[in-house]
Design goal:
Elements lengths: L1 E3 L5 H13 L4 E3 L8 H6 L7 E4 L2 E4 L1 H11 L10 H35 L6 H22 L14 H15 L10 H12 L3 H11 L3
Helix pairs in contact: 1-3, 1-6, 4-5, 4-6
Bound molecules: glutathione.
Glutathione binds next to helix 3.
């Protein structure tokens, strides 16, 4: 199985964590999501990463790919079987993939993509404004949703919701945006639990080393 994309993408990371949970082997083909080739667009029509290639089967989009992995290897399950819990898990995945990633994205872009990868001058004023104004409502919402302890936001069990939320929070963390435990104690504890679990921890350590520490 080949995953096209780079692991600093929150969407690629979702797939890598899901593969780790399922214990499935894969090869990462490092496609950068900028100026992708026409050949890549044949595989991933929106030109985005990740895209999965499994033999002659091609599938773009992290959410679609993880659904495929779940059907391929149902255990351990990443989607709750209870209807209401499953609906909540999909909602948190959607919230993470849209609002959370869009909100922390500029911080990651300025401080990691521009500064560490492109070796360009980051717009620190932009990053600071996002942290001061845009991030708090998102963290306030999540503070009211996350569990008291542990890494399972839905029914206390690790699921697709934690993969998606945890992945978005990794990009925040790479950008120096850790959750302030004085202001959002539950979210800070949740982030620490998710990022410390055996699926996320080695992946974060590897990425941190790749990004220079
Ligand atoms: N809904 C997609 C989003 C994927 C996505 O936006 N990936 C970004 C990289 S983090 C990308 O490829 N952007 C390039 C572009 O939008 O052209 C998924 O879940 O896989």
């Amino acid at each position: 199985m080949i995953i096209h994309g780079v692991n600093a993408s929150p969407f690629v990371r979702k797939v890598i964590v899901a593969l780790a949970v399922k214990g499935l082997d894969y090869e990462l083909n490092p496609v950068m999501p900028i100026g992708v080739s026409d050949e890549y667009k044949q595989k991933s029509p929106l030109g985005k990463i990740p895209c999965l290639e499994d033999g002659d089967y091609l599938l773009p989009d992290s959410s679609c790919i993880i659904q495929y992995l779940e059907a391929l290897q149902p255990e351990p399950a990443l989607y709750p079987s209870d209807p209401k819990q499953r609906g909540r898990a999909l909602w948190y995945e959607e919230y993470a993939d849209t609002k959370l990633v869009e909100t922390v994205g500029p911080v990651f872009f300025e401080r990691v993509v521009k500064k560490q990868i492109m070796k360009a001058e980051p717009d620190e004023e932009r990053a600071a404004k996002v942290i001061a104004e845009d991030v708090p409502p998102v963290f306030d919402y999540l503070e009211g949703e996350v569990p008291d302890s542990g890494d399972g936001i839905v029914g206390g069990r690790f699921s697709i919701a934690d993969i998606a939320l945890g992945s978005g929070l990794v990009n925040a963390r790479h950008g120096g945006l850790t959750v302030d435990a004085a202001r959002w104690p539950r979210l800070a504890a949740y982030a620490a639990a998710v990022h410390g679990n055996p699926y996320f921890k080695p992946i974060i350590e590897q990425e941190t080393a790749q990004l220079g520490g």
